[in-house]
């Protein structure tokens, strides 16, 4: 039997990134993370009905937008609104996340790869835009950042493929890929991954590697050295997780990054980020 999960920051695949932020940014980053985690936990709560999830997520959005009075129950939304108004950040960086979580709560079924990447536009890309806004980077960085965030998001979906199918009755593998490899949802719930499922995941990993190639432009156009390092660390962690998922049976065992991989990605990211050249970008600002 698969146990219900409740992720904390230390349980994330990429928590190492938090230590790279300047001290001045950490309150804002933690407020954004706390809001996103609480909303995600609502969408992933197997004990709530779809309507109950939608009601809570809608209330969080109303508090965030200032159309509902603050309450302790929705303190993360109220706190994030206060910080975003103070920093002049777009509230869409948070409301886009809620759109994705509502889609999760409603049990949306993805038919195509394009639909899955469109979902990532709301579930993952806002996180990238938030970090870029934090460092006051040029909007030209948005597209490659969206590719990196989508790659990371889909890798996480594959890592959790069995849990999502068994506990949340949720499938992120597009139906067109399931049909292409003669798979059913039951194959995602099995004790071990069948050859067809491994081939399907390898097929998806090739697409993810394509997203990572698009993302490689990002560190050359961001201005902040700290952010260059951040991007490279995430890039290497994602590559390590791809390698793990291709080598291990992701249904038989929970696939995680090793301590060595985390440290290796951090060291490689720091070294590469420190020496990365920056292209000149005009119209700087958000």
Describe the structure using short key phrases.
286 residues, mainly alpha, disordered C terminus
Describe this structure in words.
This protein is mostly helical and 286 residues long. The protein is built from 14 helices and no strands. The chain has helices at 23-43, 50-65, 75-87, 92-105, 113-123, 125-134, 142-159, 161-167, 175-180, 185-188, 195-215, 218-221, 225-247, 259-275. α4 (92-105) crosses α5 and α4 runs antiparallel to α6. Mean pLDDT is 90; it is low at 8-16 and 282-286.
Describe, in short, the structure shown.
With 286 residues, this protein is an all-alpha fold. Helix content is 65%, strand content 0%.
- Which quaternary structure do these chains form? single chain
Given helix and strand content, the structural type is mainly alpha
The major β-sheet equals: none
Cα(first) to Cα(last) distance is 47 Å
Report mean pLDDT, rounded to a whole number. 90
Task: Please describe the topology of this protein.
Layout: H1 23-43, H2 50-65, H3 75-87, H4 92-105, H5 113-123, H6 125-134, H7 142-159, H8 161-167, H9 175-180, H10 185-188, H11 195-215, H12 218-221, H13 225-247, H14 259-275
């Amino acid at each position: 039997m698969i146990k219900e999960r409740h992720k904390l920051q230390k349980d994330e695949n990429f928590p190492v990134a938090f230590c790279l932020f300047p001290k001045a940014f950490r309150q804002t980053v933690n407020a954004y993370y706390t809001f996103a985690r609480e909303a995600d936990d609502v969408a992933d709560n197997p004990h709530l009905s779809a309507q109950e999830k939608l009601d809570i997520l809608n209330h969080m959005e109303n508090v965030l937008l200032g159309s509902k009075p603050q309450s302790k129950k929705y303190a993360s939304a109220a706190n994030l609104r206060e910080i975003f108004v103070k920093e002049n950040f777009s509230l869409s960086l948070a409301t886009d996340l809620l759109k994705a979580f509502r889609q999760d709560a409603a049990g949306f079924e993805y038919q195509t790869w394009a639909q899955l990447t469109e979902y990532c536009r709301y579930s993952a890309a806002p996180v990238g835009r938030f970090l870029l806004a934090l460092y006051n980077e040029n909007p030209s960085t948005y597209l490659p950042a969206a590719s990196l965030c989508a790659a990371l998001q889909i890798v996480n979906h594959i890592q959790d493929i069995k849990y999502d199918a068994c506990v949340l009755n949720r499938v992120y593998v597009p139906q067109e890929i399931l049909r292409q490899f003669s798979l059913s949802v039951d194959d995602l719930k099995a004790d071990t991954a069948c050859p067809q499922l491994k081939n399907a995941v390898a097929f998806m990993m090739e697409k993810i590697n394509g997203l990572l190639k698009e993302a490689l432009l990002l560190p050359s156009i961001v201005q902040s050295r700290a952010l260059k390092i951040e991007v490279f660390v995430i890039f290497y962690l994602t590559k390590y997780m791809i390698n793990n998922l291709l080598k291990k049976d992701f249904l038989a065992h929970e696939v995680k990054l090793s301590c060595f991989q985390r440290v290796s990605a951090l060291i490689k990211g720091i070294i590469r980020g420190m020496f990365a050249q920056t292209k000149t970008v005009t119209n700087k600002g958000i």
